[in-house]
Amino acid sequence: MLLKVRSDFDSLSKKVNGKDLIYFDSAATTLKPNRVVEAIEDYYKNHNSNVHRSPHTLAGEATTMYEDARDAVANFINAKREEVIFTKGTTESLNSLAYSLSKDLNGEVLISTLEHHANFVPWQQLFDNVIYYDAENGVFNEEKYLKLVNKNTSLISITGQSNVTGQEINIKNLVLKIRKINKDVIIVLDGAQLIPHSKIDVKELDIDFLAFSGHKMLGPMGIGVLYGKKYILEKMKPFLYGGEMIDQVSIEKTTFNVLPYKFEAGTPNVGGAIGLAEAIKYLESLNVNEVYSHIKELTSYAIKKLSELDFLDVYGTKDTNHNSLISFNVKNVHPHDVANLLNDLYGIAIRSGHHCAQPLMKNLNVHSTCRASFYIYNTLEEIDVLIEGLKKVNKILG
Ligand code: PMP
After folding, report:
1. Which helix (H) or strand (E) is 186 found in, with range?
2. Which ligand 1 atom sits closest to the C-alpha of 190?
3. Terminal alpha carbon distance of the chain
4. Is 356 a catalytic residue?
5. Which domain holds residue 69?
6. Is residue 38 part of a domain?
């Protein structure tokens, strides 16, 4: 158990309606450890300046800190530093990629109904030839998915873990199989839910692009990453034009900066990058295997306990590998009412709604669900309180 980490989060001492906060909404955004907040504060108090521009001391310090943050990200995912582009988050990473590739890519784009809208709508809106894999009752079936990959597939974009069911997809296996069918497919991984608790080694997985958000892995909001293989990024057109991303500008012609700056137009989120790097250092200090097994233990316990409640419908957890979150409904009760009551009576924070995954909601034949998500600071005892809370909700509203 990672119980020792709880003291690193001041926000865990918050009282909600007189109860100790039980934060089960980390899939939406994690709490921030004190050292991340302090690193951001230190930057703004002591080193704040625009980067890459001025020769003065503060500018030098800010530039070093920003570029060190890029190194920390690159090491974390086993990429080269020039392959790490800072963005606002997963949504911006995926949109930017889709815009840039849409000018040059022909062939089929394969996506699935398991995706968050951020990995669904950009491809749907920007490409003519989109193929959809429809999950069955919310469950990804590799064999059926692979039937949709062919010699004409130019890109697939897939999540490493569903933000609704928690199903983890064996990306390494999948990539190997995809490349056997068509070695040239560009493979994009939405790592937003996977990277907070799993090691993603972009070389080992042999993916071409990876998108993720800092705020779902203990970092601040407004910072994320788009990783891309260098040789593809070199060929790709920039998706934003402006300062920083240029080499020479004249009326006749503009030439672009080298990687990764070609894709980082404008003033970047320096404090955000520094906060993300601090979050990565913190996660690394905890040991990724320990993080994974702690969250897995919580998830398996929650699935077991929630599945025992006959007044609940639990979604998409049959016979598959799940981690970090679970979706459910109390029969005949609206998920918003469940979430409100858990908050009001027990101080439990869960999410209710469609989780930005309406195609998956349709697939599951529901409009919305409750979602409890777990992270390093949660405990089995907190899940017991959730069970007690759900029984109470059912008694009052069911
Ligand atoms: N993909 C997945 C799987 C997600 O869970 C989320 C966030 N809920 C996103 C993409 C979008 O991330 P962001 O809002 O940080 O851009």
Report:
1. strand 186-190
2. 1
3. 34
4. yes
5. 49-285
6. no
